[in-house]
Structures are given as C-alpha cells and as structure tokens.
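QA checklist item 7 of 12: single-chain prediction sanity check.
[x] sequence parsed
[x] length recorded as 219
[x] structure emitted
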Amino acid sequence: MTVETERIGDVAVIRLDDGKANALGFDLLDGLLGALDDAADAKAICIVGRPGRFSAGFDLKVMRSDRAVELMTKGSDLALRLVEHPTPVVLGVTGHALAMGAVLLLTADWRVGAEGDFKLGLNEVRIGLFVPGFAVDLADYRLSRRHLTEAVQLAEVYDPRGARDAGFLDEVVDLDAVEQRAIERATAWAADLDPGAFARTRQIARGPLSDKLRASLQA
C-alpha cells in the first residue's frame, strides 16, 4: 500500500505508507492527487504518514535524473491543490518531514506532529539542492518571521517542538495519538464550518498566495 483512503464520517483520511521513507516519487504523488479527486465530496481532508515517517521529500534518484523538472512540477501541483483546497486540510505528521515533505506542512490548515527524535525542515541546501520559488513563497506565508532565514536559507532542521515554534507544526502529541488527534480536528471542522462560507473565505484569504505560487511556477 502506498496511498490508501478511508472515509470516516465527513472526513477523507488519506494514509501514506510506501514501507520506507514516503519519498515523493511519481507513484506516491499520483496516488495523493487521485485520492484528493476521490475525496471531492468530503467536508475535510486528513493526510497521515506512516509511523516514524511523514515524508522524506522528493525521491532523490529522480531529482538527480532528467525527470527532475517533471517530478518537481507534479509536487508543486499537489502543493497548490492543498493550498486552494475548498475544505479544511489537516496533516498527521507521524515523524520525519524533510525538504518537499516539510513543504507540504506549509500548505495545511493544521499540523499535528509526533513527539520524539524526529527531524523536520527544509534541508535542501544541506544536500545540494536549491529551495524552489514556490516553497519560498509558502515558507514566507506560513513560518514565523523569526525563523524564516534560518529555515529557508540556512537549512535549519528542527525537532518537533522547535518545528512548532518555527511554524511547521501547530501541536505536538505522542506518536500513537497523532492520527486520532488529526482526525478529531478534521471531524470537528467538518461538523462546525459552513462549507460554502469556508470555500469562499479560502479564496479571499489565500488568493494572493495562490497568485504568487502560480507566478513562481510559471517562472
């Protein structure tokens, strides 16, 4: 199983598990995009990683091949889908989240992280990659101003509590409680928020960000 979807009430729970590091290759990205299509009638989305791993980011083998631009384009499409999603998006961050894995954290409404010896952050500059423009735009939108330079340009990697302070996470709980807590959050918002009002407010609140992201992607 790489991507599996379960409907719990009005919430579409999307679980990622490639049995390894949840690296974002074509199969995993296609699975995620397809799961979002299938969840079009859900009132909230909850994306959960595998124990110890949320996502290690883009598949480095592909990123160092002639298909790198193709993979980055597909990943940026996913990020834009989550930013513009018309329902609340909650992430169950079950462990490490690095590079593009950390970028996904910047797209969601609420991020529940796991307590433990986990690493989260935009580590691209440490591994010989640059941070793409759309990721910089998301970091500028979502991260604490105090941490922006060290997180993006200096490739700081945080533990879960540091990631919460920086703006990658919203709360930190025991690993065993991450999925349930994320589903509880999504379920509450699915029940309490008017779908039409949320979708319209999303457009108003994130419209300028969407415009910036699209301009970065075109560039």
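[x] summary fact logged: The domain at 3-177+188-218 is CATH 3.90.226.10 (2-enoyl-CoA Hydratase; Chain A, domain 1).
[ ] second reviewer sign-off
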